[in-house]
Amino acid sequence: MTATTRTRLSPDERREQLLELGLRLFAGSSIDEISIDRLSEEAGISRGLLYHYFGSKQGFREAVVQRAADDLVAQTAPPEGDDPIAKLLASLTAYVDYVIANHQGYRSLVLAAAGGNEAVRAIYERARTRMIDRTFETPGVEALLVDTPRTRLVVRGWVAFVEDTVLTWCDDANGVTRDELVQIVTDALPALVGTAD
Amino acid sequence: MTATTRTRLSPDERREQLLELGLRLFAGSSIDEISIDRLSEEAGISRGLLYHYFGSKQGFREAVVQRAADDLVAQTAPPEGDDPIAKLLASLTAYVDYVIANHQGYRSLVLAAAGGNEAVRAIYERARTRMIDRTFETPGVEALLVDTPRTRLVVRGWVAFVEDTVLTWCDDANGVTRDELVQIVTDALPALVGTAD
DNA sequence: GGCGTTATTGAACGTTCGTCAATAGAGTGT
DNA sequence: ACACTCTATTGACGAACGTTCAATAACGCC
């Protein structure tokens, strides 16, 4: 009855399978609450194989976080266009919709990024930077955002505002609609930057 | 040469000693990067004693976080007064100064709260709520903040904005002065709430 | 159908968390 | 000073976990 037949996949397939499993388990709990035993059992492989592919548990965690971050960046790409405000609105709408759809997974990503070690935080930080840069690398944006240390500080804080607000809203919308939420986080940027001038 | 003489303290003293050690080690690294072995060795006690006082490593972590949160709340008490704006400014000034002084420890607290489990997060959440409530339980505040779901959402997001901005500033002030920082985070609240109306 | 490459295994090791009966320090009464 | 009690404290033990590595077997190729 014990299915002792080992299934041999190509490295790419196996890696893919393990990463997807990681994302799935990630959604429910922090990764260091899950033992390698449980991971390998759930994947139907031996403990050793996980080490063969990711070197260590930490390596596995980093790979999964990297994958989640890439997903986020890919699925929230703003449309091509010249109007900074429109781009911002589109980008935030995509972001909000992504968080709504991947609610649990996204929360885990943020938690992992916050609580993880230096390497994990760096991965998330890079994704964040990519998203911000991409939105603001638009001709004509200088009129809205003059590049000063103060503005950079405020924009970074604004990102924290957006993340926290959207996640809180996901837990309990409390009557606030999706469109209102998008409006709130979009309007917040000019409002904050305005006070900084 | 081995000082095998065990020192017997009163439960309160021992508890205090261990909590202070926890705060000290906390500042440098996350608590689950430190083994009970190292903790007990540094405290000059046996492993068993730590379990006697805190039940588990998780229990110890929670106690330390609770202590850190209490410190934060205690040291940022706003002055008695009726003017909401003045109270807000005073409270934020105290908060900024606290973070400046306890930079590392405070960062660890926030990281522990973000990355920790449900119980740890709840402890920090309570402290946060206490600080917010205390600032806004002022006669006449209704003129500034009408209590709607939308406002609550924004105020919560604003707290995230403040935390992130102050911590980022601590890492690299980039020419922004302390007073400017206080001004930024203070002005941010009316700016954000204004857009929500 | 045999062969070589390499994906995969499982047992073994060191470390860390957590438990518990045994031990000894400090106050108390005589 | 001494014995006695209470309980703070210990240290050895077991289970669980991360990690390593030589052995194994599945698949593509000739």
Automatic annotation (TrEMBL), chains A, B:
It comes from the Bacteria. One of its GO terms (molecular function) is transcription cis-regulatory region binding. Keywords: DNA-binding, Transcription, Transcription regulation. The keyword DNA-binding applies. Residues 12-72 form the HTH tetR-type domain. Gene3D superfamilies: Tetracycline Repressor, domain 2. SUPFAM superfamilies: Homeodomain-like (SSF46689), Tetracyclin repressor-like, C-terminal domain (SSF48498). Pfam families: TetR_C_46, TetR_N. Residues 35-54 bind DNA. PANTHER family: HTH-TYPE TRANSCRIPTIONAL REGULATOR RUTR, TRANSCRIPTIONAL REGULATORY PROTEIN (PROBABLY TETR-FAMILY)-RELATED. This is TetR/AcrR family transcriptional regulator.
